[in-house]
Task: structure prediction
Amino acid sequence: MKLKGRIAHSNNAPVGAGETTPVKRALYIENVLCTVSDHLIKMNDLNSLKEINRLRIDK
Result:
């Protein structure tokens, strides 16, 4: 395995900056990487890791 990049669950802050919420689950469907934290579901392109969409989860 080789690290290709990192996915952060934060309020538009770059990886490593500011507060982030830990990713609890990750899965891929075709070419989309889906990551889930307590407050967010993110969808990123599996090849480029570019964000496709996000869904905020309010508790």
